[in-house]
Design goal:
104 residues; alpha+beta; two-stranded antiparallel ribbon; 14% strand; Solute carrier family 4 sodium borate transporter member 11
């Protein structure tokens, strides 16, 4: 569980967000439809990135780290993600939870 960050006021939160957005890339024309295949595509793109500090990364090992059930046979089931981040907005009218994000 991570401590909530106030992105309107915290300087570190702004720096973290600016750094994340500066390194983001958009994958267009992706035809994969399953989470597994989409993540493999993202990881392959990450592995080919010249600024990547881990040029010899193992895709199967990365997938095993992302999913809690990576070693189990799928048999039509869905993967369980090991780690997600969820955005929360607190206002005077209540708390709003955003969709979970997967960060690689």
């Amino acid at each position: 569980y991570l401590k909530l960050k106030n992105f309107k006021e915290e300087i570190r939160a702004h720096r973290d967000l600016d750094g994340f957005l500066a390194q983001a890339s958009i994958v267009l024309n992706e035809t994969a439809t399953s989470l597994d295949n989409v993540l493999r595509t993202m990881l392959r793109r990450f592995a080919r990135d010249p600024d990547n500090n881990e040029p010899n990364c193992n895709l199967d090992l990365l997938m095993a780290m992302l999913f809690t059930d990576a070693g189990a046979p799928m048999r039509g089931k869905v993967h369980l993600l090991s780690d997600t981040i969820q955005g929360v907005t607190a206002t005077v009218t209540g708390v709003r939870y955003q969709q979970s994000w997967l960060c690689i």
